[in-house]
Amino acid sequence: MLIAFSVAPSGTPRDAGSGAADASVHDAVAAAVRVVRESGLPHRTTSMFTELEGEWDEVFDVVKRATEAVLPFGSRVSLVLKADIRPGWTGELDGKVERLERALDSSQRDGPSVM
Predict the structure, then answer these.
(1) Separation CA 96–CA 7 (nearest Å)
(2) How far apart are CA 33 and CA 29, in angstroms?
(3) What are phi and psi of 8, to 5 degrees?
(4) In the chain, which end has fewer C-beta atoms inside a 10 angstrom radius, N or C?
(5) What sign does the dihedral 60-78-2-46 (CA atoms) show?
(6) Residue 54 in 3-state DSSP?
(7) CA-based nearest residue to 49, from 65, 71, 66, 72
(8) CA distances from 84 to 12, 55, 93, 96, 100 (A)
(9) Which run of H or E residues covers position 38?
(10) How far apart, in Å, are the Cα atoms of 99 and each of 6, 61, 71, 92, 104?
């Protein structure tokens, strides 16, 4: 299964004295991504989401621990999840992108189709 998730603190930081003027959440996100990296599961982090691949229980365990890592940075936490559940398939973190690139290369070589 693939999970794309984004976790961020909101509300008043628990340590309100440290307040970042730019409202950046990079320290909180770093805490979450650290949990993902330490999990050993295949993953990719982009500017807005972290993608994670594995079995149901192991993936959701990592998401839970990443969310818990963000808790100290706010009075509440926002979590967004998207899942692609495809039993029996592995390597899809890269496989889906590779198939897309092949399709783009093919359509570029063949040119646009006329209807």
Answers:
(1) 23
(2) 6
(3) -150, 145
(4) C
(5) negative
(6) coil
(7) 66
(8) 33, 11, 10, 11, 16
(9) helix 26-39
(10) 25, 29, 37, 10, 9
Of 34, 85, 23, nearest to 62 by C-alpha is 34
**For residue 79, what pLDDT is reported?**
97
Note the pLDDT of residue 112.
64
Specify the pairing of strand 76-84 against strand 43-45: unpaired
Query: Which tokens sit at 76?
Result: 């509440």
Read off the pLDDT of residues 12-53 as tens digits, 9 standing for 90 and up.
776 655 554 556 789 999 999 999 999 999 999 999 999 999
What pLDDT does 26 receive? 92
66, 70, 68, 65: which is closest to 10 by C-alpha?
A: 70
